[in-house]
Fold each of these.
Amino acid sequence: MVNELISEINFRGANFVKTVDISRLPEKENMGYDTAILIGILLSPEFILGLSKETIAVPSEFWEKEHRAQELAEWVADFIVGKGYKAFAQSDGNLINGYFEEATKTSVLPHKKIAILSGLGWIGKNNLLIAEEYGCAFCMCTVLTNASLSIENKKVIMPKCGGCTVCKDICPVNVIHGTTWEPNMNRDLIVDVYHCKCCLKCLVHCPWTQNYMKSNITL
Ligand code: SF4
Ligand code: SF4
């Protein structure tokens, strides 16, 4: 089933798929599931360039790919359930009562936590997951399951922001505090999510995202 599932996820538009052991997390976080599947879809270098130069005013590609990643997660959960296992897609439509707290804007098991366990990257001062290869230029969604899949947990990567403050300096509403992430750190020490305008400037202008864009763009 694993090979069939992974090749179908890739065929349906994912750029990366990771399977993560979450069995050692507290049950209130893993909700009784032992494996998480992380699905990622890259933002195009052209889109990053357009936002950088402000030739793109509306970041519709970002929202389309967010939506696509969630649709894909829901398809994966249905596929796994069809094979006789339990699975739960952590799409926005499913992350309601008991899975997401609106008041604090936190989910029980965030995609970013799963991404950290997978070794994909680290949490930057912009509170986004940064992958060395892609910067923050991707959308993610996750599926929790009890299907037996081979897993690829890696060592937690500590932030590689160093002395950079680009995201803090560029945020138009000053909600990034410039704090370096540490495991189990309260997110509110890094960013005030309640006043974030979702403008994506901190995503686009992060040097890691710019490196991804410059390495992959065809001009
Ligand atoms: S998305 Fe925009 S408003 Fe939100 S933290 Fe990033 S730069 Fe600031
Ligand atoms: S812009 Fe700089 S400080 Fe902000 S997340 Fe990227 S590397 Fe870290």
Amino acid sequence: MKALQITGYGEIAKNVEIREVENPRIEDDQVLIEVHAASINPVDYKIIEGAMRNIQKLSFPAAIGFDVAGTVKDKGTNVSDFNIGDEVFARVPTHSPGTFAEMVAVDHQAVCQKPSNLSFVEAASIPLVGLTSVQAFQKANLKAGNKVLIHAGSGGVGSFAVQYAKAQGAYVYTTTSTKNVEWVKDLGADRVIDYKKEDYREIAKNVDVVYDTLGGNYTKEALEILKQGGRVVSIAGDPDNETAKELGLNGLIRFLMKLKRFKLDQLVKDKNAYYKFVMMHADGAQLNDLKELIENRYISAIIDQEYPFSKAIDDLEHVKNGHTKGKVVLNMKLS
Ligand SMILES: NC(=O)c1ccc[n+]([C@@H]2O[C@H](COP(=O)([O-])OP(=O)(O)OC[C@H]3O[C@@H](n4cnc5c(N)ncnc54)[C@H](OP(=O)(O)O)[C@@H]3O)[C@@H](O)[C@H]2O)c1
């Protein structure tokens, strides 16, 4: 079969290529999925560039890709919840990527039946961003009536999170640039803040929850606009100590991170707040909850662009450029 493979760390164009490889062999707990579509996430180019090597060091050539939608072609002896021919979607477990390929073997516990009202391309756009947001809002203890700021409402994560937080009954502030304001409003956000023209800190004040999808100074600024005792969940800022340990980061790295977090930790203490860095994980049962929200029309898939497999590098570069509107997807059936 054909599969995109990472051949070394560095620039995208010089370190990935489509190669002919053996079909994956399934283990007893796995299903073999014929990939119809696979979406790109920033983590994919970050892995190629080596930014994740402290967490997971690659040996080359390495498989790539976490999101998939496709058809079950085979299953292991322990799998009773899926049948050959089922149309499914999944975020594959972190230790076994490989969805940018014609076939992928996936632990059945990460897999879910595809929402009946979505195409394969649409379904492939959901798992990673959807599970990230569900897991982050669980940590944030988001409740109906809470005021939440979601940064980057036009991004892959943000465009999902705005819809999800509205479905939970929250009041949603979100940020984006001028060109995206109108369609992000259509996602249901109560107040879309144009970061090119407005200072979000003047508008989203005293919020219960900040969902930090940007990191850098935005993580510290979250504490400025948070109410006393509020909660910040970050997917792009500095890992808190507990998460850094769970990620297996060594003592020296954790110590340097603690120094870097000094100001943030102080602000969290002063506000009697909660700060958590969330590293998402695969979860087929949670995907099933999302399937219901999608089928009940609370959440739509937002597709910026689809690319054929032969243009996978362009697809990765598109996401790397940082201005996607929703999700960018590889359509394996497009030539
Ligand atoms: N920890 C985890 O488990 C986890 C999981 C998923 C994602 N992540 C991380 O979360 C981050 C976001 O992921 P993503 O998939 O949403 O990325 P993305 O789709 O590439 O985000 C692009 C969007 O960000 C917006 N944006 C850029 N700068 C902005 C700013 N200053 N203010 C407001 N919006 C801004 C852009 O809007 P404009 O074009 O209008 O600027 C664009 O729509 C990435 O760093 C990713 O690696 C982490």
Amino acid sequence: MTEEHTEFTGSGRAGIVAIVGRTNVGKSTLVNHLLGEKVSIVSDTVQTTRNLIRAILTEERGQMVFLDTPGVHKAQGELGKNLNKAARSAVQGVDAILLVLDGSSKPELEDDGWFRRICREEVPCIIALNKSDRGTNFVNAYQALWEEIKAEKESAVQPVWASVSALQGTGMAGLLDTLFGHIPEGPPLFPDDILTDYPRKLNIADVVREKFFHRLEKELPHALAIWVEDIDEQEKKWTVDVSVMVERHSQKGIVIGEKGRLIKWVREQAEKELYEMYGVRFKLNLWVKVEKNWRKNFWILKKLGYA
Ligand SMILES: Nc1nc2c(ncn2[C@@H]2O[C@H](COP(=O)(O)OP(=O)(O)OP(=O)(O)O)[C@@H](O)[C@H]2O)c(=O)[nH]1
Ligand SMILES: [Mg+2]
């Protein structure tokens, strides 16, 4: 860092960075890599992230609070619409925007939408072309699209472009330098020993949901909602009651699997990961319930934190 801090003698810079972009481009993978720890679930199913997740990075240069947002996607029903609204409103009041694109596949309508959105922003914008390990065939197409939209909107926004692979960690240090260069000086916003303020119940539910996503195909993941009812925190073991909601009776069998194999696999994988995250043993009780049309039920969405 070249600048001297005069007023603030603490640890440097502090700011909030919203990570936005189309679904599946690798926003959560990126935030996990920047933090060096898993704070947000990842899968190759669209709209994996359903809540806004705050991930907090504290180091010598200061503190950066990342908002990992649900990817914007053609809205399907109430849930899709709420996720899109959450993603769009996340950019309000932040210090910088990190727009993630998938440089290995061609621009889509949602990318166009984000370019139009950042055209109007007054805060610094950094554009990360992710998945560089898969090739950079479409980098020029994104840049051309940006120039076109910028000219059409007569925008003065000058984003910084970076090529990265969140999966392999390529370009991460450079990206972090750029981000630190664009947030203001100031004291940390959170204590320096916390990684996320995402509630424990929601995090446990997300870990379980991720395991299901790895095994379920097609539309079923979207019909699935996970809710932690209760956590009994004993010194040596935490026992957690988890509701697994599906929309139809036929889906119940799929989620449980033949001879209960699928749900057993999910339980074991989730227990293992939670042990690594929290350093305490977990016993998960998974209860499968049929809740017709929960995706359209405002109160259920609200309870799950999606509305
Ligand atoms: N090859 C490659 N795959 C990646 C990279 N980054 C992410 N992925 C994969 O892309 C898929 C989507 O990643 P996520 O991090 O869940 O994407 P997201 O943007 O958070 O998606 P939503 O939460 O649905 O908006 C996963 O299968 C990741 O493993 C990368 O740099 N290279
Ligand atoms: Mg995500």
